[in-house]
From TrEMBL:
SUPFAM superfamilies: Pectin lyase-like (SSF51126). It catalyses: [(1->4)-alpha-D-galacturonosyl](n) + H2O = alpha-D-galacturonate + [(1->4)-alpha-D-galacturonosyl](n-1). Its EC number is 3.2.1.67. May function in depolymerizing pectin during pollen development, germination, and tube growth. Acts as an exo-polygalacturonase. Belongs to the glycosyl hydrolase 28 family. It comes from the Eukaryota. This is Exopolygalacturonase. It is found in: Secreted, Cell wall. It comes from Panicum hallii var. hallii.
Amino acid sequence: MASRLGALVLLLAMVAAWLAADVAGAVGPVFNVTDFGAVADGKTDDSRAFLRAWMKACKTPGRPAVVVPRGGSYLLHPLVFRGPCRGYMEVRVAGVLRAPAGLGAFRDCREWVHFSNVDGLLVTGGGTFDGRGATAWALNECPRKRDCKLLPTSIKLGRVRNATITDVTSLDSKFFHVTVAGSHGVRIHRVSIRAPRDSPNTDGVHIQGSSDVRVTDSAVATGDDCVSVGPGTSDVLVSGVTCGPGHGISVGSLGRYPGEEDVRRLRVANCTIAGTSNGVRIKTWRGGSRPTAVSGLVFEDIVMRKVRNPIIIDQEYCPYASCRRESEQRPSAVRISDVKFRNIRGVSATQVAVKLSCSEASPCRGLELRDIDLRYVRRGVATQSQCAHVAGGVVGGTLVPPSCI
Ligand SMILES: *[C@@H]1O[C@H](CO)[C@@H](O)[C@H](O)[C@H]1NC(C)=O
Ligand SMILES: *[C@@H]1O[C@H](CO)[C@@H](O)[C@H](O)[C@H]1NC(C)=O
Ligand SMILES: *[C@@H]1O[C@H](CO)[C@@H](O)[C@H](O)[C@H]1NC(C)=O
């Protein structure tokens, strides 16, 4: 009996020690922005205080944390949190970060909060990045105009490795909410992203030139794509995301600029898409000469609720008059192959629930449609599928609408 009790006490002591070690490991030296002069009144420019806190933390080994306390709002002009740093950087935002109104403070900056060249980063804390897009959306003239001014992205991860953004909210970005570029090993988890349904180019998460990126268990409601995957991207998982309103989950646009790299291995699974203009979409511009490849894509276990184009490949993408003039007759050179749509069900807001509009110059190859059940919002009217330039593929299981492959 005594030895059993002793063993139990020993076990408890070990658990307690392990918990303490874990907490100690997770909480390193704290760099509280208020100690560096930040004033949480939403009016004072706190950029310098934040940068000084970051620079000090960045020189510290272990797990330094830049802490933004709750209960206030911190006005930040555009700023770059630059690495490399000595330790694993945590930025714990419990308060509200507030972007400047309009574009005056941005000059040539394409980003508001930019993490650059950091290996090992955690952004968390339950706080909010408020991009105050409503003060700038009316100035969004791109890409309709040449020489136009693009609005700034709220949060950019540029050349970042091993980074996690979790338990934060991004609100009303001026342009994209989060951009991941030239990065590797990025986790975006339990993030809430919101902007009005009519706000221009407010994509939720845009990924390009990056690999090993996961967007999971997050809610995205904006005026543009919930998640968009651009050129040079591979090994992306989008899972447990609720999307809408917005333009859906998109690969592209591709094929507009020379030198674009391929898109390979994307899995979109277990998502709910509601009230959007598209569900899952691949879009490539008309024209272009580079045969960028898009391959190894899986879209599965997705529920659509009143989505206008639940499944769409659009190789005729050309929303502006400028591209209509430049390349009126030239089909897209982007090659799409090995794309699987599996277990996608729900309600389509238009009759054409499946539209596979591929390029005359490079027909889609290796498409799969399996267990598709998409009903028209009006009962008793059947949905349809449309195919153009689809060079074969495989189908199986339930197929509503009937396949055109
Ligand atoms: C940061 O500083 C503020 C103001 O001094 C304080 O209220 C807050 O508790 C501090 N937070 C941490 C985590 O040290
Ligand atoms: C990412 O950083 C954490 C914290 O330092 C570390 O434990 C983990 O091994 C790193 N992961 C990779 C893939 O480098
Ligand atoms: C699917 O996503 C929901 C959240 O949207 C999550 O609760 C659930 O665990 C996920 N299921 C799987 C199998 O990943």
